[in-house]
Structures are given as structure tokens and as C-alpha cells.
Amino acid sequence: FSINMDQLQLDEELGRGNYGTVKKVLHKPTNVAMAMKAGRELEDAKLNAIIMELDVLHRAVAPEIVEFYGAFFIESCVYYCMEYMDAGSLDKLQGAGVPEDVLARIAACMVRGLKFLKDDLNIIHRDVKPTNVLVNKKGEIKLCDFGVSGELDKSLAKTNIGCQSYMAPERIKGESQNNLGTYTVSSDVWSLGLSMIEIGMGKYPYPPETYSNVFAQLTAIVHGDPPELPEDSYSEEARDWVAQCLRKDPERRATYKELLDHPFLVRDRTSNVDMVKWVEKALEHKAAVALAAAKAQTPQSV
Ligand code: ADP
Question: Which parts of the sequence belong to the Protein kinase domain (predicted)?
Fold first, then answer.
């Protein structure tokens, strides 16, 4: 079905990205809650290119991919509607700690989602990171924000200007750009490994405060040893799986198939990890942290 603004009731803001906001909306005709993302103004020629490119999203239907409902334009701005994920992004849920069986399930979902995009739609994600992994209270883990449209990316001003780079060493060095900017799947595998470390440790593994500037931080990614999952909380299998994603040489990184067939994820196939329970606990923790932060900001009464 096609969607337009008149059919939408705007609800609360869900978050802010680099360029603008994501709002919760209700699609009145179907009574479906959605998340709506807005882009900036564009020239008409580009709008048509985007419409054509977005068409592929209607085919991106898989259990590990956030569903796309449609996009529309108002005064040359693109509005993009997708499945509402009621537990938000993974970066904000990892604070409560992520036990190994939960980490394995998250990893399995991410790999299956990435493999589906590549094998069935010939799409490389290009922006794998915990903020782009969404969760719902049913315990489902889904990917969003993949590089389906060059024009849309530009419209949403997707730039890696944040202080957390998930870019693979070869991307930072610019090697894989010789070839008309070819981006290979293996660069996504690096970002996947780095995301697993961040989720497992509860923080980004190259913290900006450790480096005097962004250049030093990027140098550490390119020349330093890759980070590892902590020995005290994760098994040898989990640590090896992540290490296979984080090989500095892209040719030596594991493929999606190898990652799915690795003992870490083979074990997950028969694991009865309670994801609903984990999401519930993670949300409670997130709410407690938010409350503490709000209290700290309120001036003490005199
Ligand atoms: P970024 O630009 O950092 O990738 P986004 O603009 O994609 O961030 O999203 C900003 C925030 O909005 C996310 O961190 C997430 O918490 C929330 N969000 C995005 N998409 C959805 C969705 N489909 N359902 C629920 N929350 C979402």
C-alpha cells in the first residue's frame, strides 16, 4: 500500500540521528504503529532516483530485516516509514550486560540478515553498528539502515562523522575505493565483529577519550591489534568467532556461511535462550539509568 502524511498521526520522538529525527507514527487506515524518518530537501531529479531505488526495499522481507512500509515526499523532503521496533536500538540496551547465549542469538540474527541482503538482493549493508540493530519486546533482532540507495544516503546525509568508527581498516586506508568505490562484504564483517565487541563489553572498543584526536583513534584501528571479547565473561568459541570477523586482512575474514557454521552459532541453533526476558531486563535497566540521569540534572531543593 502507499502511504502519505494525511494518514499518519504523529506520536513521540524515538531518537535523533546525525541529520534529523525518527518519530513514532500511527498509520490510521491500518492502525499500524510505524517509525518515520525524515530526510532533507532534494532536487526533483534525485527524488525520482530515490523512488526507483527504494523499490528494492519492498522485496527486503526477512525475519532479520526491519520491514519497509513506504516513502513519500513533501516539498522535496523524503519521509521514510518502517516497522516500529518497540525496544529501540541495541546500543541503548547493552548496558545491562549481554550474556553469551544472548550475544550468540544477536550474532546469528545479524549474520542471517546480512547474508539475506547479499544473497537475495545483492545489497551490502555498509553501516553495520549497534545503532542500526533494532529490537522489539518479542525478542526479535532486526537490521535497518542499509545502503540500498546512494541518493537516499546522500539525502539523509549519512556520513561517518561520529566519533565511533565501525569502518574496516582497509576502508579507513581507502584501499577498497580504488575500484570505483567498491565496497566488499568483508568490510561489513569487520563492522559486525566490532559491534559484537561493543555489545559484549557494553562500550565502544576504541573509546574517543583514550585518544588525543580522531587521527590517533583511526591509526589504532588500522595499525593496532584488533580488540577481543573479554576472557572472563566469554567462551573460547565466542572469542574465536569474533576474532574471525576482526582479522585485519579482509581476505582472511570469515564469510557469512563460515560464521553461521562456526560452533558458536551452531550451538545457538538449539539454544532456548529467553530473548523476551533479556529485552525486558535490558529495558528496565535503561529506564533506571535514564531516571538516575534525570535526577542528577534536577537541582536539589533548598
Ligand atoms: P543513526 O543516524 O544514528 O543511525 P537513526 O536516525 O537511524 O540513527 O535513528 C535514531 C534513533 O531512533 C535510533 O537510535 C533508535 O533508537 C530510533 N529508531 C530508529 N528507527 C527506529 C524504528 N524503526 N523503531 C524504533 N526506534 C527507531
Answer: 8-265
